[in-house]
């Protein structure tokens, strides 16, 4: 059967995966290269990874992933520049003034985007800015700079790499709800103000049997604002142990997500958050749950894999 990336290429769609740089050898590397046309570093480009102590940078894993992608004709989604989580301790414990915070943030965007200028096709510039009720999440950035930290970051990002597509990314914004409506209103207002914004990322960390019925409608309303939509972190978790019935439900859920994206021109495609259950964050973060990706722990494709292929 044709690899997923060949099917996706023929449709002009992204089929991506998050990857761990240190694992890019052997079977893991073979599958990542063969099946996917985009890669996202799962952790390697986060601030705590690239600048663990102030002014001292570690680009090794991020470089490895970008080099691997280029060697295999893949594009890279940069993840992520402005977030409340996985920031280095020196930053979160630093007790900086708003002016200092602004300078730190702008320099961070400049440094990281300049390093990969022209080599990272899309950036999750801002990650997870909203609460579930649609209010702004109180973060280092919101508390210090106010809600316009988002516009400031996007403006700086455009200047740092004019060739990169700039995204705001969040979770629980797949269906039409209070949170996705807040994101929608933000994107509309950014567009009205002329702030650079090219797309929204819908993470899609989903629960078995719970693909929102309004997924395609929600994608379409963002598309109608004149931005791209990417499904950026798809996984569909289940209570363990795995059963055939759960795998069948999972395949149907993957199919529904794929079909919703394929149906909308401005949905650029789907990235899974790890392609194998052996490289998924779910067991570490959601007790008793797992098996959320299209391949099992031994790189055997699951029914979800066939569902992705069937949609493409
Ligand atoms: C996760 C990684 O996969 C884990 O390895 C890490 O321990 C925590 O972060 N939303 C995001 C991703 O935007 O960056 C997160 O990745 C998963 C949730």
Question: Your description of this structure?
Answer:
Belongs to the glycosyl hydrolase 10 (cellulase F) family. It is an enzyme of class 3 (hydrolase). The active site is at 233 (nucleophile). The two termini are 13 Å apart. It contains 13 helices and 10 strands. The longest helix is centred in the C-terminal third of the chain and has 19 residues, at 244-262. Helix 6 (98-115) runs parallel beside helix 8 (149-160), helix 10 (215-224) packs parallel to helix 11 (244-262) and helix 11 (244-262) packs parallel to helix 13. It has helices spanning 4-11, 26-35, 47-50, 60-71, 89-92, 98-115, 140-145, 149-160, 178-193, 215-224, 244-262, 282-285, 303-311, and strands at residues 14-19, 38-41, 75-82, 122-127, 165-170, 199-202, 205-207, 228-239, 267-272, 289-290. An 8-stranded parallel barrel has the order 1-2-3-4-5-6-8-9, surrounded by 6 helices. By secondary structure, the protein is of the alpha/beta class. Strand 1 (14-19), helix 2 (26-35) and strand 2 form a beta-alpha-beta unit. It has one domain: Glycosidases (TIM Barrel), CATH 3.20.20.80. Bound molecules: (3S,4R)-3-hydroxy-2-oxopiperidin-4-yl beta-D-xylopyranoside (XIL). (3S,4R)-3-hydroxy-2-oxopiperidin-4-yl beta-D-xylopyranoside (XIL) binds at residues 42-43, 127, 203, 233, 281.
Q: What is the spatial order of strands in the main beta sheet? A: 1-2-3-4-5-6-8-9
CATH level 3 topology: TIM Barrel
Rg estimate, integer Å? 19 Å
Strand content: 15-25%
What is the H/E string? HEHEHHEHHEHHEHEEHEHEHEH
Report the total helices.
13
| Heterogens | (3S,4R)-3-hydroxy-2-oxopiperidin-4-yl beta-D-xylopyranoside
The overall pLDDT, averaged over residues, is 98
User: CATH architecture, please?
Assistant: Alpha-Beta Barrel
By CATH's scheme, which homologous superfamily applies? Glycosidases
Tally of domains? 1
The largest sheet is: 8 strands, parallel, barrel
- Principal-axis shape equals globular
- According to DSSP, the number of beta strands is 10
Structural class: alpha/beta
Q: Poorly predicted ranges (pLDDT <50, ≥5 residues)?
A: none
CATH class: Alpha Beta
N- and C-termini, Cα separation? 13 Å
Share of helical residues: 40-55%
């Amino acid at each position: 059967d044709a690899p997923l990336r060949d099917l996706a290429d023929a449709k002009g769609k992204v089929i991506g995966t998050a990857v761990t740089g240190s694992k890019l050898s052997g079977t893991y590397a073979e599958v990542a290269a063969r099946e996917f046309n985009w890669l996202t570093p799962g952790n390697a480009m986060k601030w705590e990874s690239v600048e663990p102590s102030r002014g001292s940078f570690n680009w090794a894993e991020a470089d490895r992933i970008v080099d691997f992608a280029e060697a295999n004709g893949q594009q890279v989604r940069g993840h992520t520049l402005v977030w409340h989580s996985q920031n280095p301790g020196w930053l979160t414990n630093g007790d900086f003034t708003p002016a200092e915070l602004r300078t730190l943030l702008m320099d961070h965007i400049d440094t990281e985007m300049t390093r990969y200028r022209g080599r990272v096709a899309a950036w999750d510039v801002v990650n997870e800015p909203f609460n579930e009720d649609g209010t702004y999440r109180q973060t280092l950035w919101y508390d210090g700079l106010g809600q316009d930290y988002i516009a400031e970051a996007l403006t700086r990002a455009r200047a740092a790499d004019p060739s990169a597509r700039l995204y705001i990314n969040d979770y629980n914004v797949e269906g039409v709800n209070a949170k996705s409506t807040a994101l929608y209103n933000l994107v509309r207002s950014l567009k009205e103000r002329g702030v650079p914004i090219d797309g929204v990322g819908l993470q899609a960390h989903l629960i078995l049997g719970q693909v929102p019925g309004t997924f395609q409608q929600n994608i379409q309303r963002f598309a109608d604002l004149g931005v791209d939509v990417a499904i950026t972190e798809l996984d569909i978790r289940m209570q363990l142990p795995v059963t055939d019935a759960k795998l069948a439900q999972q395949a149907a859920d993957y199919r529904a997500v794929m079909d919703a994206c394929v149906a909308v021109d401005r949905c650029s495609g789907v990235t899974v958050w790890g392609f194998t259950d052996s490289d998924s964050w779910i067991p570490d973060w959601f007790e008793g749950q797992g098996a959320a990706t299209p391949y099992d722990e031994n790189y055997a494709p699951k029914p979800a894999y066939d569902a992705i292929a069937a949609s493409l």
